[in-house]
Amino acid sequence: MSGFSPQPYLAAAENAARIAGAFLRKNFSRAKQVDAELAHDIKLRLDKDTQAIITAELLAAFPDSAILGEEGSTGGADAPCRWIVDPLDGTVNYFYGIPIFAVSIALERRGELVLGCVYDPMQDEMFSAVAGGTATCNGRPIHVSAHTRLAQAAVFCGHGAHDGSGEAGIRRFAHISSQVRKMRILGSAAVTLCYVAAGRMDAYIEDRISLWDFAAARVILEAAGGVLEFTPAQPGAVQGAVLAWNGLLPLHETLSSIP
Fold first, then answer.
1. How much is the average pLDDT of 58-84?
2. What residues pair up with 69 in beta bridges, in sequence order?
3. Mean pLDDT to the nearest integer, 145-159
4. How many CA atoms lie within 13 A of 198 on its CB side?
5. Can you give the pTM of this predicted structure?
6. Could you tell me which of 7, 21, 173, 241 has the fewest CB atoms within 10 Å of its CB?
7. For residue 111, which of 131, 82, 75 has the smallest C-alpha distance?
């Protein structure tokens, strides 16, 4: 990152995430306006409103930046830096009153992710990292677990028609669940990946996920000693499959042994 100082960018991202998180927390118990109901998802007006808040904060700090967000994009392809934003990761949880969701903000420079922060406003936990640096939660260093056996592990494993895997996803879920200590599905990719980074969980497996869902958490996880592999649905796509873990569990071997 020669000639580039990430700290002012990280400070701006954390500030925007906290402001957006406060907005989401304030509205958590209020009636929600639904913009779209999908087969296995939901879109709220708050998703757009929250991204607008984040966009205003980031562009006020760095006007030349571009933004790629779940709720729309701004700026040109020639911008020196691009923010990757999920204003509300865990919208379905939020809609049903389940307090597990997060604001996710990453920064990409010259095609490389250079920093990320994920803010959980209900727990008031700010996970953040600069690529190659130390991952933290509320300023305290975090690290992935030391578990090497699946029997020790708590794992998120997406399954079912909603992630595009259908029967194959159910078989995978059953195969892995029979070998691990516990399965946990939290409803927020960003929160789950940060929990893997903090050693609270050990792995995350999902067949359909978007870049804005995991970009910030990827930086945090890798800085915490973990591994994330993304396989795009097609070359250049921002959607695809993710396999993330502490780098010690034999996940590839386990997945290759599914009947």
1. 91
2. 72, 85
3. 93
4. 18
5. 0.93
6. 7
7. 82
